[in-house]
From TrEMBL:
<dbReference type="InterPro" id="IPR020084">
    <property type="entry name" value="NUDIX_hydrolase_CS"/>
</dbReference>
<feature type="domain" description="Nudix hydrolase">
    <location>
        <begin position="40"/>
        <end position="171"/>
    </location>
</feature>
<dbReference type="InterPro" id="IPR015797">
    <property type="entry name" value="NUDIX_hydrolase-like_dom_sf"/>
</dbReference>
<protein>
    <submittedName>
        <fullName>NUDIX hydrolase</fullName>
    </submittedName>
</protein>
<comment type="similarity">
    <text>Belongs to the Nudix hydrolase family.</text>
</comment>
<dbReference type="GO" id="GO:0016787">
    <property type="term" value="F:hydrolase activity"/>
</dbReference>
<dbReference type="Pfam" id="PF00293">
    <property type="entry name" value="NUDIX"/>
</dbReference>
<dbReference type="InterPro" id="IPR020476">
    <property type="entry name" value="Nudix_hydrolase"/>
</dbReference>
<dbReference type="InterPro" id="IPR000086">
    <property type="entry name" value="NUDIX_hydrolase_dom"/>
</dbReference>
<keyword id="KW-0378">Hydrolase</keyword>
Length: 182
């Protein structure tokens, strides 16, 4: 047993939605005391760092209701039940950007907010994008605008808090460490 492990005594599901489930777990702490943990269960997601032939990074701008503002992000989306992450990544790249690729490389996977959620994001990279011959429709409740930016332009948007999410910040760090400077 892990010395920090919290044993679940009971789980109460508060809400089960299309994307997340909210639950409250009663737990026994390592010192024997009990406590409550409010948790969000999430099916996981993917995100794609995509570079054009000109070395520009492919982004989408979209409104995020939780933030009450639009932000610029790398293409991303939720895993569907039973779907492999690389299939989701290709689907989201095509739907959101109009680009496709034959080459996706897994960069890493990371948890977005491990203090209360189990969402795991699988981050992919491609520098081999090509326009789709026929556009793929977005989800019916999704509205995005394509943006292609240099790393410097994207860094400025991060400073201006137009890029304001962890997956996209991680993507910029990855590109910077990789030596992308265009």
């Amino acid at each position: 047993m892990n010395k920090f492990e919290e044993k679940t005594i009971d789980t109460e599901v508060i809400y089960k939605g299309k994307i997340v489930q909210l639950q409250v777990d009663s737990v026994t702490l390592p010192d024997g005391q009990t406590s409550k943990r409010e948790l969000i269960k999430h099916p996981g997601a993917v995100a794609v760092i995509a570079l054009t032939d000109e070395g520009k990074i492919v982004f989408v701008e979209q409104y995020r209701k939780a933030l009450e503002k639009s932000i610029v992000e790398i293409p991303a989306g939720k895993l569907e039940t039973g779907e492999k992450p690389e299939i989701t990544a290709l689907r989201e790249l095509e739907e959101e950007t109009g680009y496709t690729t034959d080459q996706l490389k897994l960069v890493t996977s990371f948890y977005t907010s491990p203090g209360f959620a189990d969402e795991l994001v699988h981050l992919y990279f491609t520098d081999q994008v090509k326009p789709l011959e026929q556009k793929v429709d977005l989800d019916e409740d999704e509205f995005v605008e394509l943006q292609e930016l240099t790393l410097q332009e994207a860094e400025q948007l991060a400073l201006d808090q137009k890029i304001h999410d962890a997956k996209t910040a991680f993507a910029l760090l990855y590109l910077k460490l990789r030596g992308e400077t265009r």
